[in-house]
Design brief:
single chain, alpha/beta, Gyrase A, domain 2, Rossmann fold, 4-stranded antiparallel sheet, 4-stranded parallel sheet, globular
Length: 632
């Protein structure tokens, strides 16, 4: 490829990604004139493939062929070219002409475009395209100046509600909660990065028999509490003085006791059901205890989420949906959808063409109690009223797919959710151990999330303690960030629908597709800039090495990864792009010795590149919910 040492200095005098002097193309060429309007749409930079597709489509049309043949993609053979277009093959069928001849016609037209360094027909009719160095530099410059950093923005306002997390009151977070939290957080940040409004709701399990079991057990363990006394003045209630750890022990104990087939077990279960019924009718004592249980439990859950850099905009629970249940029943009855089946109240949701049996959704059990479907449908009423979303995404275990099929169909049939609103279950697989089965403790139990994090943190702290680059007082925080990066990247690099194996040694490796490698890359760039100075802006005169050009092209293509990740709801695409950028930078760093470079223009260009890579990598990691470190 052409070296750009002799080209004019590239300044930030471009029109959103295309140099001004290239906007006025040769008269009569029928090539697109990329002025301010066409380059920027809805306050969003066009991606490189969009710009090239427009150019190539215009070239096809100018040659007498359909513009629809001009779709350009990133080359799957980067050793041969940067981009490719295979439209000539489809054109051969339409115009009864050899694809090589069609591709040659279009290549000749594109050859006159100063933004294109190479356009050539190869093989049977492939069209290979390379961009000019000046165009790439201009695009990266404008991308860095763009508030969205080149991430394609939504063309119209959209609101997306994300339901993720799903913890239960009085229960500790375990590793089964990890993927919902990590994937949901990344998707929420991805939605916001694309210019849309994202609302994250934890959907807390804070209602039902589980609360009755806990309160019933507390009453048996602490009969001395004044709150149980008749006539107790609740205005003086100051709490129950137990810890989250005690609550976490009480629920499984009470649950097990209620399932014992003994007179004592049956009696306790009846007592818990009575407490649950009284609570749901507003009993003031049980309500006060319930609120205190939620306060203690949520503080502990939030602490765990905070450690993982996961947050929620709303901490609504199943209890918040309870007041919408009567409206739900009314709507279903008005539509004539609700009927009795074996004592339960159900709605048919099977559809013609179903490949599996989709049973009726149970809205009320035979004892008139609510179940998850009831709560989810009532919650949708609340969400439509409060937020009027365009879409609602549920980040929940893939094994719940049938449940959400039933709920979504019922919501649409009942008119709870307009047809225009998209409901989607974004299922995820399991985190497994080396045996391929869901990850467990050594004794076969379910591992608490806090325990998993502690194990990874200890590993990270051992690595960080060996470092001579970081101050002692900073090492604990660095270890936390490294541990979180290892956990999150190790999870998110896999497509959410797939299972994966938790491998601590692999996740903590300093090379390869790991969070550690990405943090190390950012720390390396910080060190380079600290030693050689940080540029004020991106003002490179040219491109001086193939590895430098490769990094610049990866930077320019980063917006494509975000667009694909949003379209597929797949954060792993951002992970892959971040890794490829870091890997590309590592090759550049090996080839180009920045500190020893004597040519001032080269050194400035390379420092510019370092700053650009850090900027883009930090943005990618932020979307993944990963914090960087200054030194590693």
């Amino acid at each position: 490829m052409n070296d750009c040492r002799g080209c004019l200095k590239v300044k930030q005098q471009t029109i959103f990604g295309v140099a001004k002097n290239s906007a006025n193309f040769v008269q009569g060429s029928a090539m697109p004139n990329y002025d301010l309007y066409t380059i920027r749409k809805a306050d969003s930079m066009n991606t490189l493939t969009k710009i090239l597709t427009d150019k190539t489509s215009a070239a096809f049309e100018a040659c007498g062929y359909s513009a629809e043949l001009g779709a350009v993609t990133v080359s799957d053979r980067p050793d041969l070219c940067q981009f490719q277009c295979n439209g000539a093959f489809a054109g051969a069928k339409l115009y009864h002409k050899a694809p090589r001849m069609i591709a040659s016609d279009v290549a000749a037209k594109l050859a006159n475009d100063p933004d294109i360094a190479k356009a050539e027909a190869v093989g049977a009719g492939f069209l290979n395209i390379d961009l000019s160095d000046g165009f790439i530099l201009n695009y990266v410059s404008d991308m860095l100046a763009d508030p969205a950093l080149g991430i394609p923005q939504a063309e119209k306002p959209e609101t997306i509600v994300l339901d993720y997390g799903g913890p239960n009151v009085a229960k500790p977070l375990h590793i089964g909660h990890l993927r919902a939290a990590v994937i949901g957080e990344a998707l929420k940040r991805l939605v916001r990065a694309t210019g849309r409004t994202a609302i994250g709701d934890v959907h807390l399990g804070d209602w039902g028999l589980q609360i009755g079991l806990v309160i019933a057990e507390l009453k048996e363990r602490h009969p001395e509490w004044e709150i149980w006394q008749e006539g107790y003045d609740l205005s003086g209630f100051g709490g129950i003085g137990i810890t989250a750890e005690e609550l976490n022990e009480i629920y499984p104990f009470a649950s097990k006791k209620s399932k014992e087939e003994t007179p004592e077990g049956e009696a306790f279960k009846a007592k818990a059901k009575a407490v649950t019924a009284a609570l749901q009718k507003g009993d003031p004592v049980y309500t006060a205890l319930w609120k205190e249980i939620i306060r203690i439990s949520c503080a502990d859950v939030k602490r765990n989420y905070d450690t993982l850099n996961v947050s929620f905009d709303y901490w609504y629970g199943e209890s918040d949906a309870e007041k919408y249940v009567p409206e739900l029943i009314d709507r279903l009855n008005e539509k004539g959808l609700l009927y009795e089946s074996e004592g339960a109240m159900v709605v048919d949701v099977a559809e013609e063409g179903d490949k599996i049996t989709v049973p009726p959704v149970i809205v009320k059990k035979s004892d008139n109690s609510n179940i998850y479907a009831t709560t989810d449908l009532a919650t949708l009423i609340q969400r439509m009223k409060d937020w009027k979303p365009d879409e609602v995404w549920y980040v929940v275990d893939s094994r719940q797919s049938l449940h959400f099929t039933q709920v979504f169909r019922c919501a649409k049939k009942a008119g709870i959710v307009p047809e225009s609103v998209k409901l989607e279950h974004l299922g995820f697989g399991t985190m497994n151990g080396a045996d391929g089965k869901p990850y467990k403790t050594r004794d076969g139990g379910v591992m608490r999330l806090e325990t998993l994090y502690g194990m990874v943190y200890d590993y990270a702290k051992g690595m960080v303690d060996k470092s001579t680059h970081s101050a002692e007082e900073d090492k604990a925080d660095i270890a936390r960030r490294v541990a979180v990066a290892a956990i999150k990247f190790g999870d998110l690099i896999n497509h959410r629908a797939k299972d994966y194996v938790f491998d601590l040694d692999k996740f903590m490796a300093a090379e390869g597709k790991t969070g550690s490698f990405l943090l190390y890359t950012v720390a390396r760039i910080n060190s380079i800039l600290k030693q050689n100075g940080t540029p004020d802006g991106f003002d490179s005169e040219g491109i001086y090495a193939d590895s430098e050009r490769a990094v610049l092209l990866k930077l320019a293509l980063s917006g494509e990864a975000y667009a694909a990740a949003y379209r597929e709801k797949a954060p792993n695409m951002v992970c892959e792009d971040a890794y490829k950028l870091a890997d590309c930078f590592a090759k550049f760093y090996h080839d180009c010795h920045i500190a020893n470079e004597q040519d001032a223009a080269k050194k400035r260009a390379w420092l510019n590149l370092c700053l650009a890579v850090r900027t883009v990598l930090e943005r990618q990691l932020d979307v993944l919910g990963i914090e960087t470190v200054e030194l590693f």
